[in-house]
Design goal:
336 residues; alpha/beta; Four Helix Bundle (Hemerythrin (Met), subunit A); Rossmann fold; 2 domains; 7-stranded mixed sheet; 4-stranded mixed sheet; 10 helices; globular; binds 5-S-methyl-1-O-phosphono-5-thio-D-ribulose
Length: 336
């Protein structure tokens, strides 16, 4: 299935194989990984060849569908083992666990391998629809905004469709062609520089790249009128786990009286947890901070702290946009 953004295919099911655009190679090269085994999908997730919360859910679902087609043991056993493997890849994105719960439930209820492939595709298509709805609702919030600041990548390389925060940006830009974007490069792995700038350039949406430590000065100078971010997991009280740096942007936005919006599908919202203290934050390899792309920028063995995500209190978020609607503090009801 083709994502709805200038032909970007972050993931596709192709005759019994899962084809993944290797995001670690972007923006230099467009290389596709062809996975025939769930272990290959799990490895692609672990090394961030595929990433972004909604897309992780879609990849996990296709991974289970791959495993279901195997021949060793029974289908239910293969599906349970695949789900266990995929659950252990990355801990923070709710969508990954949400999709696995759905797939296992269907298998336990007697689904065939073909049913599970159809279920994965349904998850993929529903995410694309959720992105469209988020885009439309979110574009309303961006009325009158000339320039928006964003972090990480929340577009077609992170979802099954046009994106969440990037979906809002795309829909707002489509309305009158005037919206501009400032993208934080998003250290340590540069999803903003490598992926968001790649998507926005392809779309012809004017975008300016900054290093993360420039965000405060950009706001002080009045260069942006809104901040939009995605989410990996949202607690019932509106606390938002997202790419490291998001919390800092929310504090800066509050100080400068700039609205701070979060966009995510309901599959990111974890109504089972009361607040963000229950969110497990992934800590990644220190080498990601000691250098980039094989070049060392710190002494070998330098002590490093490398959380991949942070938690922004719901009270710091002006509004959360889901496919069901726009919710605001104190987040009493999530609609639908
Ligand atoms: O580590 P990543 O690249 O998977 O982190 C991604 C993010 O933090 C995104 O902002 C989030 O998953 C939302 S994507 C629509």
């Amino acid at each position: 299935m083709e994502n709805e953004s200038r032909g970007i295919r972050a993931i596709a099911w192709d005759e019994g194989k899962v084809v993944i655009l290797d995001q670690t190679r972007l923006p230099s090269e467009e290389v596709y990984l062809v996975c025939t085994r769930v272990e290959e999908v799990a490895e692609a997730i672990r090394r961030l060849a595929i990433r972004g919360a909604p897309l992780l859910g879609i990849a996990a679902a296709y991974g289970v569908a791959l495993a279901a087609r195997g021949s060793d043991g029974g289908l239910r056993g293969r599906v349970r083992a695949a789900a266990e493997l995929l659950r252990a890849t990355r801990p923070t994105a709710r969508n990954l666990f949400w999709a696995l719960e759905l797939m296992v439930e269907r298998a336990e209820a007697g689904a065939t391998a073909e049913d599970l492939r159809a279920e994965a595709r349904r998850i993929h298509e529903e995410d694309a629809a959720a992105c469209r709805a988020i885009g439309e609702r979110g574009a309303e919030l961006l009325r009158g905004v000339e320039c928006v600041l964003t972090i990480c990548n929340t577009g077609s390389l992170a979802t099954g469709g046009i994106g969440t925060a990037l979906g809002m940006i795309r829909a707002a830009h489509a309305r009158d062609g005037r919206l501009r974007v400032i993208a934080c490069e998003t250290r340590p792995l540069l999803q903003g520089a490598r992926l968001t700038m790649w998507e926005l350039t392809r779309d012809g949406i004017p975008a300016t790249l900054i290093t993360d430590n420039m965000a405060g000065e950009v706001m002080r100078r009045g260069m942006v009128q809104a901040v939009v971010a995605g989410a990996d997991r949202i607690a019932r009280n509106g606390d938002v786990a997202n790419k490291i740096g998001t919390y800092g942007l929310s504090v800066l936005a509050r100080h400068h009286e700039i609205p701070f919006y979060v966009a995510a599908p309901m599959s990111t919202v974890d109504l089972d947890i009361p607040d963000g203290s229950h969110i497990r934050i992934e800590e990644r390899n220190p080498e990601e901070v000691r250098g980039f792309g094989g070049a060392r920028t710190a002494p070998a063995g330098a002590a490093v702290f490398n959380p991949a995500f942070d938690v922004t209190p719901g009270s710091m978020v002006t509004a959360i946009v889901t496919e069901r609607g726009v919710v605001r503090p104190p987040y009493g009801s999530w609609g639908g």
